[in-house]
Task: structure prediction
Amino acid sequence: MITAMLLIDQLTVVTMDKQRRILTDAAIVIDRKIIAAVGKSAELTTKYAHADRLDGHGMVAIPGLIDAHCHADQSLLRGLGDKMHWIPFLDDVVEPWLVKRDPADGVLANTLAMIEMLRGGTTCFVSPNVDPRDDYESLTAVIGQLGIRAVLGRFIVPAEGSDTSGKAQQAVGAAVKVMQQWHASQHGLVSMWFGLMVPRAAGDTVHPLFYREVAIESARMGVGIVYHFCSEPEDAEYIVNEFGMRPAEWSRDHHALGKNVLLINGCQVTPHEIGILASTGTHLVHSPVANMKMATGILPLPDLLAAGVNVALGTDGALNNNSYDMFAEMKTACLLQNAVRKSASAMTAETALEMATLGGARAIHREHELGSIEPGKLADIVLVDMNRTHTLPIHDVVSNLVFCTNNSNVHTVFVGGRKVVDAGTMPGVDVADVLQRASARSAVIRQQLGVETAGAWPVS
Ligand SMILES: [Zn+2]
Result:
């Protein structure tokens, strides 16, 4: 429900505005979808005396978190990717899931993940590989029902037959048709992007004309391109051996870099490639938990940031994270860099929070309306309950948000002024039913895929 005008007072606001102001004894005024005012409680309660009121005492308001790399369709496989190298992980778990799954299970998996995200303060996510076989109608309907912002990368590969200009146009045109049908649906909550794939291993098809066509269409539609890039030692090595160039050079030469491109991972990038990403304005999303869990490499994050590359944060997903918790992601991003750089300030809490908010907003080209709590922006706001044993006292609120807070602290969440999480509950959503169905389907799905758990201990 969207209230005509709502004033939330007596709280702390981490604005993420240009000065990065943190306001205490503060208030936020939401006018339908938009943030109308941010300031001191005393002033705004007088000025907006007619507004509905919500007591924010003990709360810290932050902009909605943006999970810029999130396979929301993998939640039903949680834990089944443990202890695996990325190649069998993709071949033996991810691929069978995409090929064999019932479309209804795909929707159920997305639903479970989206509920987890909203209850964890994530108000927007980028799902890079939404399968062409998915049930887009049901998926977008659930997005609308839950009220989360979703950027869906419609998965597209240069499959057989896209090696001539006409065939490339035909292949890309088929994807465009689907994208146009769902783009900006559900009152603008859904955005459709190209979920591209570049060569990573022997056998992957390469058709330069196809990539050019994707670039042309993405510019024409004003939508982004997202794909996994230079993630693991083997896929970077493959590009070098096969094409005699670094992955960023390959992507640059195939029209797959630029301001409308979001690269995933990039753990293997060299200083030369960082320069290419910076000069082309390409964005990158970092998923430290998944990178560490799968031992795929360590992103030279401080070097990318120093070069001016916009870096967002993402969870990756239930198969290699194994959650969609952006608070854990922020903390891990700091711990990883501090550990490998042997410096307690290699990666700060402030930078982590910037990446999870403004960095994500920039990566999806929506910095003008998302990523901070400022008048005129969309009211995507998370109220974090800090009055808990693990988050008190508050000497430094940003430190507490990144190093102490977890998704259980999330109290209330607004997306575009709509209260989608209300004191931990989700109005109009039968969460218990989703949990029951997810549990019921999990054993069936495991059997369907023929995947065993990696657990070492006997279960009886
Ligand atoms: Zn991924």
About this structure: The CA atoms of residues 237 and 246 lie 8 Å apart.
